[in-house]
Design a protein that fits this description.
10-stranded antiparallel beta sheet; 12% helix; 41% strand; 18 strands
Length: 320
């Protein structure tokens, strides 16, 4: 299933962006105000029939043309982002330890989704990773993403067990990556968090971090303490990003349904504070499942794995 933006949504986004450009304004005051992305070409796929995952040297590549939305994973992707492909990366391991696959919706028969699963730590026995890579784009000054997620196997156990954790990454933005020899690495990570073992709920948190001498250090951190994310039901989220400094940078996560709400709203650095010439966001993981061996092994001991499904991905961006 593909969740279409309405024409009214697009008009509002375009009007907002036009007003910002005309006024020379780089800040957005209200939490509910749209950041204003209306780039034209978009990623728009519900992973419906004719979308395929092709094996390419240990990674998978999304390919084909989504027959429902018409989105082509090669031609349309490059027009929208400059990237050549969306790959699914594991960083090692076997199919028995981790997997990504296209499958039926766990709730609605006849609807297709993409799902990630971690059964055992697949990265050197220390952590587990399955992630979508949208890398080497033309560099975004702004982007907006909508996607639905379904927290499946293992998440009810994490919600209810006597455990706390703050590392279970679902989305990650690299501005810039720490593996490309860029002098100013910076990332924004969105994690699912369990703060209090007495509260049986999972919430979202995010941090912006710089990388120095092999260590990530927080520039800012926020947690949606009183906005739990439902387990074993679909949740639609919107992420918005504006590249900027402590007063012009913006990162927002909203829940569209169920129970619409702004979960995280940050006005702060969205690139490295020492980078005097930021050149746009070129690398991001628009959806991922990445966590510690401790969580994965604990669930394995309980006879379950960790799985999440994704659907209705819409992404639009403004080049730098």
């Amino acid at each position: 299933m593909y969740l279409h933006a309405t024409q009214a949504d697009r008009c509002l986004r375009g009007l907002t962006l036009a007003l910002l450009v005309c006024c020379g304004c780089n800040t957005l005051d209200a939490a509910s105000q749209d950041i204003g992305v209306d780039a034209g070409p978009v990623i728009a796929s519900g992973f419906e029939p004719n979308t395929a995952l092709l094996d390419r040297s240990g990674s998978l590549v999304l390919s084909g043309t989504d027959l429902q939305s018409g989105f082509d994973w090669a031609q349309d992707l490059e027009a929208a982002t400059g990237a050549q492909r969306v790959t699914i990366q594991f960083q090692g391991g076997t199919d028995q330890q981790r997997r990504a696959w296209l499958t039926d919706d766990p709730v609605q028969r006849g609807n297709r989704t993409i799902c990630f699963e971690l059964r055992e730590p697949n990265v050197g026995g220390q952590k587990g990773r399955v992630q979508a890579n949208l890398y080497d784009t033309f560099g975004f000054s702004r982007f907006s993403q909508r996607i639905r997620l379904y927290l499946g196997d293992g998440f009810s156990e994490l919600r209810d067990a006597n455990v706390t954790f703050d590392w279970l990454t679902l989305f990650e933005l690299w501005n810039n990556p720490n593996w490309t020899d860029d002098p100013w690495p910076f990332r924004i990570s969105v994690n699912l968090i369990r703060q209090d073992p007495d509260r049986h709920e999972l919430v979202l948190g995010a941090h912006g971090q710089t990388y120095t001498d092999g260590r990530w250090e927080n520039v800012w951190e926020v947690i949606a303490t009183d906005q739990p994310i439902a387990v074993e039901t679909w949740t639609a989220l919107e992420l918005e990003f504006v590249e900027g400094n402590a007063s012009t940078g913006r990162f927002v996560v909203r829940r569209i349904e169920p129970a619409a709400a702004t979960l995280l709203d940050v006005t702060n650095w969205t690139h490295h504070p020492d980078d005097a010439n930021p050149d746009g966001l070129t690398h991001l993981n628009p959806f991922k499942l990445y966590t510690s061996a401790e969580l994965i092994n604990g669930l394995h001991d309980l006879g379950t794995s960790l799985s999440v499904c994704w659907d209705d991905w819409q992404f639009e961006a403004v080049p730098r």
